[in-house]
Amino acid sequence: MKNLAPAIFPPKGIGDAKPGNKAVLDWVHEIATLTQPENIFWCDGSERENEFLIAESLRQNVLIELNQKKVPRSYLHRSNPNDVARVEQFTFVCTPTKQEAGPTNNWSDPTETYAKLRGLLAGAMRGRTMFVIPYMMGPEDSPLTKVGFEITDHSLLDVNPERRFICHFPQDNTIISVGSGYGGNVLLSKKCLALRIGSYLACKQGWMAEHMLILGVESPEGRKHYVAAAFPSACGKTNFAMLIPPAHFKGWKVTTVGDDIGWMRIRDGRLYAVNPENGYFGVVPGTSFKSNPNAMRSIAHDTIYTNVALTDDGDAWWEGKDGEPPAHAIDWRGNDWAPQSNEKAAHPNSRFTTPMRNNPALDPDVEKGEGVPISAIIFGGRRSDTVPLVYQAFDWDHGVYLGATMASETTAAATGAVGRVRRDPMAMLPFCGYNIGDYFQHWLDIGKRLTNPPLIFNVNWFRKGADGKFLWPGFGENMRVLKWIIDRSEGSGGALKSPIGWLPSPHDLDLAELDIDHNAVDELLGLDHEEWQKEIAAHKEFFDSLGGVVPEELQKQREQLAAGFEL
Ligand code: GTP
Ligand code: SPV
Ligand code: MN
Question: Which phi and psi angles does 292 have, rounded to 5°?
């Protein structure tokens, strides 16, 4: 096969940051003996290294330079067209027993899997450069922070969907990924470490690793709360974390701590959260100055775009960007594109990669080692029907039930059918690195240790009317829902008791200066008994499908919910 990523030869002073740690050196030596690279590049994260690697990537056509006047220091990467999303069917948790991985993970035997992977890796880096990338997940002085090393080659284009394996060995703190260059499959510090291995460690050590954004919200009087929210992939975390309140909320300010992953620990009976990441790997389509101005400013420079379209003047373009579509562009596959084309110009899961320092709304405490105290946890999914705009759990255990039974219509973030409702507990279905029953129990156990637990809410920005259109304007207007959540957390804010939880009535939400009709609001906050009968049956079906691992407490919650609807 043609070597699409030949070795690179850096000048002295670049790529030679060899560490002194013997364990690391031994391990690198072992992998080099197996994979047989031409040379080894020891990364140090310096600016000089960055410039060299970008120049090399441009030379090898792995990156395309964008118009430097329009988007300074920004580049386009076109992936292999069959390597555009996470591949859940090829993702494995390799624990000694299948039972430890549980009913929601693909399991494979660690000994056999190591042997198989060793076979695939033997000689795999011949003629190529091996990169050793040290990384740190979390603020420098946080007790949760983890240090890791990723060894990789440069074979971004040389992927093979027939031989794609993303394998986790929680007992060994090891991850091996072959055959994909896509973010969630190969940035091993992110979903693989920070969530899958992270959740396994969190359960053992008594903390939480969650698929959550973390935001700060400050009132005009200067009262500040932090909120964490778990929405499934491509369901609005980045947008919510960067929310700009509408004009009516003068003096309110929302700041971003994280947009995808939250690590939380108990301190003084409260949950404190840190964001282990240093940047954003976000969905591009739909991003505009109308929907998310902070994201637009974040990606206006120093950004790598993957699988967006390229305009004739060298700019990045995607569906949903402000202004008119270009008359001509090169689409994400590298083909000519025009507005009348049947194909999308940008892949629906095209992504930006940008450092968090680019975000104008970055929270000042983002690097604080002790984390930020969480006042509320929000669950949410993409549901065209059934689930109201917002409601509040009766208590922690009921909140765990809301998380455990949440569902969402599938998106382009993972390969497979899009738009199918699937249960995605706590937005962790693809990311929980151990038995989901033990994960539910862990959530219940955490609750018992909290003297000042966050209140738990569920939201749905995606309910649709009979015309098939979203009933709720979403984006910045989600501030209206966030405000109710803050009010409830402060002990004010009205609500009605319903069988599913505390529901706001229309006048409990601040809808001033919002162009929305009364019927839409009623529909957004309404409960349809027939839909809920089906929903509760689906909860039971889901729990049953897990084969007896669901804690008794959650079964009890379901019975109570069902009883509430029989009244
Ligand atoms: P991952 O990075 O995959 O974990 O996704 P995410 O949860 O951060 O989702 P993101 O904020 O990138 O949003 C995904 C898609 O949902 C984008 O196309 C957004 O435009 C759209 N979206 C986000 N928020 C809203 C909203 O409030 N209403 C509507 N209708 N769409 C939204
Ligand atoms: C997701 O799919 O939830 C993402 C993108 O955040 S990735 O990092 O690729 O998993
Ligand atoms: Mn995510």
Answer: -150, 75
Ligand 1 pocket by C-beta < 6 Å: which residues? 231, 233-239, 259-260, 282-283, 285-286, 291, 413, 461-462, 470, 474-475, 478
Q: How far is CA 93 from the centre of its chain?
A: 19
Q: Which residues have CB under 6 Å of ligand 2?
A: 86, 183-184, 190-191, 233, 260, 281, 413
CA pair distance 546, 47, nearest whole angstrom: 49
Catalytic residue among 167, 203, 235, 432: 235
3: pLDDT strictly greater than 80:
no
Q: Which amino acid, one-letter code, is at 518?
A: H
* H-assigned helices in 36-182: 47-59, 98-101, 110-121
Residue of 164, 180, 191, 212 to mutate, ligand 2, most atoms within 8 A of C-beta: 191
DSSP 3-state assignment of 455? Answer: strand
The answer to whether residue 56 scores a pLDDT higher than 80 is yes
User: Which residue's alpha carbon is at the smallest distance from atom 22 of ligand 1?
Assistant: 236
Structure tokens at 495: 């609500």
**What was the pLDDT predicted at 498?**
98
CA of 238 to the centre of ligand 3 (A): 9
CA 193, chain centre distance (Å): 13
CA distances from 441 to 23, 401, 426, 487, 507 (A): 36, 11, 13, 29, 37
pLDDT at 156 over 80: no
**What's 18's DSSP letter?**
-
Split at pLDDT 50, 70, 90, the class of 158 is low
Question: From the alpha carbon of 462, which atom of ligand 1 is closest?
Answer: 30
For residue 251, with 0-12 CB atoms within 10 Å meaning exposed, 13-18 middle and 19 or more buried, which class applies?
A: exposed
Does the active-site annotation cover 235? yes
Taking the alpha carbons at both ends of the chain, their separation in whole angstroms is 68
Quick check: helix, strand or coil at residue 154?
A: coil
Rounded to whole angstroms, the Cα distance separating 206 from 90 reads 29
d(CA 363, CA 259): 12
Q: What is the mean pLDDT of the chain?
A: 96
| Alpha-carbon span 188 to 106, nearest angstrom | 18
CA of 234 to the centre of ligand 3 (A): 7
Indicate whether 413 pLDDT > 70.
yes
Half-sphere exposure in the Cβ direction for 367 (13 Å, CA): 7
Q: Which two tokens stand for residue 97?
A: 């027993």
CA distances from 164 to 13, 180, 196, 269, 396 (A): 35, 6, 18, 43, 40
Residues 6+ apart with CB under 8 A from 399: 377, 379, 393, 455, 456, 457
